[in-house]
Each structure stands twice: as structure tokens, then as C-alpha cells.
Write a structure and sequence with these properties.
The protein is of the alpha/beta class. The protein has two domains: about 180 residues, Rossmann fold, CATH 3.40.50.1970; about 200 residues, Up-down Bundle (Dehydroquinate synthase-like, alpha domain). The chain contains 13 helices and eight strands. The strands form two sheets. Strands 1-8-5-4-2-3 form a six-stranded parallel sheet, sandwiched between helices. Strands 6-7 form a two-stranded antiparallel sheet. Helix 5 links the parallel strand 4 and strand 5. Helix 4 packs across helix 5, helix 7 runs antiparallel to helix 8 and helix 10 packs across helix 11. The termini are far apart. Its EC number is 1.1.1.202. This is 1,3-propanediol dehydrogenase. Pfam families: ADH_Fe_C, Fe-ADH.
């Protein structure tokens, strides 16, 4: 057995722990540069409370911007320029607060502000641009997730999009894992049901794909089992009762574990296709993963039946199954959960057309797809997507 394991330097998890942000952040620097991932964080006073709590610990802060879309190349470049104008450098740290979009933008900018070989993030992205490497350590980063989904607070990459040309690629380096994660499930209580459903299924997809990945590792697999045991019963409750402390805590913990798992073990087909659905069809990441997950599980059943059964026996130890029955139970359980939280069963209901499938197949060949336990030809992937229309 031979593996490496990556995780944030410090994780602070718990209900109402947002109030501790000031003392926790003192180890990162003297001035906080804040990037938000939702306008509601401004309107409901969370950003102002964050600034007040920091000031109480003698940390100055600047609110840089909010991003309400998945970050694009221009967003990273423009925000990095704003940070330059604010004189960002030694003694400063970034705070990414929000969902995956806000945290990813903060992670990308923390890296770009210290790496000057190019003035555009495009040249550092995997598979596009000039292939430049991040040579200087990013500014310190505090991640405060307010949705339970992407696990970006615990990963070593930031996903950046472009629509002309169309791609979704990662800025990646081991040093991009946030220095400190402050995860307060209470912050997610105001997230609407539809967003709760989609982000929650992203976390569940990450847990499942990391467990069955061809790069799966023992520590992440243990975390995946724990995350699935928490998330599978909690997600519908979080969607139907957003104020449920038990459901919000379970989903926040599961999403955090999913980020740690994917940072170490990779993902698979659902996350391979999801970026393509995002850039060609403008489908949100969580929704794309949710729709693709049952097909992903069915596609990999022939090579991962044993692992599916392991998951089922962990989440439902009271049931008596053969291995084949246990594996099938997992697939049906995911389909039932999707139905309950109003996730569509097909791509055509999201506006995907037959004419888009060649582009979707071509754009699905990224790092995530390389983790899929079954190697899929273009013809096989085309057939899978056609069957989902």
C-alpha cells in the first residue's frame, strides 16, 4: 500500500462557530480580503457580521466582491487586479465565504496574486493556455462554506470556466488547499430548497465516485462511508425543513468529507460529464452531477458491485442482501432520493438536445473522467448520454 493524503491544516466544525472567526483568523494575517459567493450574504448581514467579528480581533478587512456565477477566467483576472489595487501581499489573507463558486474564486485569486509569470489565470489552467505552474505559495486562505455541496473548502483546486472557447478546467496545486476551514452548518439554514437539493447531491456524488474511483485510497474510502451514512438520510430532510439542525449538520459534515475524499482519490463519469453540461448547456454543476449519478452507478456496476455492496451494508446494516442485491439497492436508493427532491431523470428535461451530444462527449475528457473505474470509449459515452435524453 502506497499513498499520500492531503487535507486542510485546520478544520473548525460546529454549530454557531462562525462567532469564533476573529480569534481563529489571527494566525493567518493582519488584513482579510473577503470574497463572497452569494448576494444574500450581503443582504442578510453575514458579510457585515464577518467584518465586525474580525475587527474585534484587530483584523482589518476589505470586502472585495461577490460572485453569483461559477467563476470564469475573466472573474479571476478582474478580481486579481482588484487585489493588486488593494496592495495585497505579505500580512494579508483571503477569506472565501459562500458556496463552491465563492471559495473557488478566492482560492484561485490567492494563488494568482503571488504568481506573476502571466497576468491571466488561463495560462495556468490544466490542458489550456501555456501550461504554466504555480511556483510561489498562495496567500493564506480561510474557507467558510455556506452551502453543503462542492467540498471546495477541502480541495486543492479551483474550477474555472470559459464559454468562448468553451471549457471548464482546474487551477491546481497542493498548496491551494485552504489553511483553515471554518464550517458552521447554521450558515446553510437560509439556503433555498432547490439549491440545497442540488448542492447536496453534488456532495453525495463526490462521496460515491471517490469510493469507487480507480484511484481510490483507504483513508478517503473510510471518510466516504461516514459521509454517505450522514448524507443519504439527511438530504431530503434538509430540503424539506431547511432549519433542521440535524440535517444541516449532517450535510455540512458530509460535504466536507467529500471534498477531502475527492482531493485524494479523484472522481468519475458524473463529474467528467458535469463540466461539459455546464459549459455547453448552462446546467448548474450540482444539478448536472445529480442527473448523471444513477447512470454513472449503472455504468460502473459490472466492475464495482463489491464496492456498492460495501456501501449498502454500511448505510443499511439491518438489511440482509446478497452482494448483487445490495449493489442494486444502492442504485435504486439514489434514484428514489433524486425523485423525492425533484431531480429530473433525463437530460432532455434540462434542455439538452441530440445535436449537443458530440460536444458533450468531447468536453468530458478531463481529470475527473480519468478516475472512472471503467474506461469509456466515445461511442459508449455517446450511447449513455443518448439513453439519458
Amino acid at each position: 500500500m502506497n499513498y499520500n493524503f492531503f487535507s486542510p491544516q485546520q478544520i473548525c466544525f460546529g454549530w454557531d462557530r462562525f462567532q469564533e472567526v476573529g480569534p481563529l483568523a489571527t494566525s493567518l494575517g493582519k488584513r482579510a480580503l473577503i470574497i463572497g459567493g452569494s448576494r444574500s450574504l450581503e443582504s442578510n448581514g453575514v458579510i457585515e457580521e464577518l467584518k465586525r467579528l474580525l475587527l474585534r480581533s484587530n483584523i482589518e478587512s476589505e470586502f472585495v466582491r461577490t460572485i453569483s456565477n461559477e467563476p470564469e477566467v475573466a472573474d479571476v483576472d478582474q478580481t486579481t487586479n482588484l487585489l493588486h489595487h488593494l496592495g495585497a501581499g505579505a500580512g494579508d489573507f483571503l477569506i472565501g465565504i459562500g458556496g463552491g463558486s465563492g471559495i473557488d474564486l478566492a482560492k484561485a485569486c490567492a494563488a494568482m496574486i503571488t504568481n506573476w509569470e502571466s497576468d491571466t489565470v488561463l495560462d495556468y489552467l490544466e490542458g489550456v493556455g501555456k501550461g504554466l505552474q504555480l511556483k510561489q505559495a498562495p496567500l493564506p486562505l480561510l474557507a467558510i462554506p455556506t452551502t453543503a455541496g462542492t467540498g471546495s473548502e477541502a480541495t486543492k483546486n479551483a474550477v474555472i470556466s470559459s464559454y468562448s472557447p468553451a471549457f471548464k478546467k482546474s487551477l491546481r496545486a497542493d498548496e491551494m488547499i485552504p489553511n483553515l476551514v471554518l464550517c458552521d452548518p447554521k450558515l446553510a439554514c437560509s439556503v433555498p430548497p432547490e439549491i440545497t437539493a442540488r448542492t447536496g447531491m453534488d456532495a453525495i456524488t463526490q462521496l460515491l465516485e471517490s469510493y469507487i474511483s480507480c484511484r481510490a485510497q483507504p483513508i478517503p474510502q473510510a471518510l466516504c462511508l461516514q459521509g454517505l451514512k450522514l448524507a443519504l438520510p439527511a438530504l431530503a430532510e434538509a430540503v424539506e425543513d431547511g432549519s433542521s439542525r440535524n440535517a444541516r449538520e449532517s450535510m455540512a459534515h458530509a460535504a466536507l468529507l467529500s471534498g477531502i475524499a475527492l482531493a485524494n482519490s479523484g472522481l468519475g463519469m458524473a463529474h467528467g460529464v458535469a463540466p461539459a453540461l455546464g459549459i455547453h448547456c448552462r446546467i448548474s454543476h450540482g444539478l448536472a452531477c445529480a442527473v448523471m449519478l444513477p447512470a454513472t452507478l449503472k455504468t460502473n456496476l459490472s466492475v464495482r458491485q463489491k464496492e456498492y455492496a460495501e456501501i449498502t451494508r454500511f448505510i443499511a446494516p439491518e438489511r440482509s442482501f446478497t452482494e448483487a442485491e445490495a449493489a442494486q439497492y444502492l442504485i435504486e436508493h439514489i434514484e428514489t432520493l433524486n425523485d423525492r427532491i425533484n431531480i429530473p431523470r433525463n437530460l432532455s428535461s434540462l434542455g439538452v438536445t441530440q445535436a449537443q451530444i458530440p460536444d458533450l462527449v468531447a468536453s468530458s475528457r478531463g481529470n475527473s473522467m480519468s478516475g472512472n473505474p471503467r474506461e469509456l470509449s466515445d461511442a459508449e459515452l455517446t450511447q449513455i448520454l443518448e439513453d439519458l435524453l
